[in-house]
């Protein structure tokens, strides 16, 4: 997937500033989340399936986003939420590190906005203790 910064070339100063501010806000929040996970014993050196959530108001927009994500070679699926909105989950296998999560979250969030949706966070199942007693 192209990084957030590979798409900057044709942007105005205002668009570049907004992209940088969005990236830095996400970077700060993700740093806090990852530090909290580590403090709670989550092994961040282990590769995992990380789910990036996105919300859309209608099925057509959600499907268009899924199609765009799949065209990039990624895995995505969507479901209708109780609220009537559509929740699209994009799953990536990677080690949970600050920069990589933030770049993917920013890139996918930008793509979601192009279909009138928005990013709604990320997470993964901590299966470190599965099978242990």
Write the layout of secondary structure elements.
Blueprint lengths: L12 H27 L8 E9 L2 H13 L3 E6 L5 E9 L3 H17 L3 E6 L10
Helix pairs in contact: 1-3
The computed structural class is alpha+beta
Task: Look up the CATH topology.
Answer: Alpha-Beta Plaits
User: Can you tell me the CATH class?
Assistant: Alpha Beta
Task: Tally the beta strands.
Answer: 4
| Shape-level CATH architecture | 2-Layer Sandwich
Mean pLDDT: 85
Overall geometry: globular
What is the H level of CATH, i.e. the homologous superfamily? Answer: RraB-like
Largest sheet composition: 4 strands, antiparallel
Textual characterization of the structure:
The chain has 133 residues and is an alpha+beta fold. The protein has a single domain (13-123), classed as Alpha-Beta Plaits (2-Layer Sandwich). The protein is 43% helix and 23% strand. It contains three helices and four strands. It has a four-stranded antiparallel β-sheet with strand order 2-3-1-4, covered by helices on one side. Strand 2 and strand 3 (86-94) form a beta hairpin. Helix 1 packs across helix 3 (98-114). The longest helix is centred in the N-terminal third of the chain and has 27 residues, at 13-39. The radius of gyration is 16 Å and the shape is globular. The model is unreliable at 1-8 (pLDDT under 50).
Q: Brief overview, please?
A:
Strands 2-3-1-4 form a 4-stranded antiparallel sheet, with helices on one face. It contains 3 helices and 4 strands; from the N terminus they run αβαββαβ.
């Amino acid at each position: 997937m192209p990084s957030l910064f590979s798409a900057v070339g044709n942007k105005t100063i205002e668009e570049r500033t907004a992209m940088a501010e969005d990236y830095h806000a996400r970077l700060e929040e993700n740093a806090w989340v990852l530090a909290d996970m580590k403090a709670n014993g989550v092994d961040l050196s282990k590769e995992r399936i990380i789910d990036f959530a996105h919300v859309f108001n209608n099925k057509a927009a959600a499907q268009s986003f899924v199609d765009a994500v799949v065209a990039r070679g990624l895995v995505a699926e969507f479901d209708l939420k109780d609220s009537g909105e559509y929740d699209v989950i994009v799953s990536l296998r990677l080690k949970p590190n600050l920069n990589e999560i933030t770049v993917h979250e920013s890139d996918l969030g930008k793509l979601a906005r192009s279909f009138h949706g928005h990013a709604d966070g990320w997470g993964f199942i901590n299966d470190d203790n599965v099978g242990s007693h």
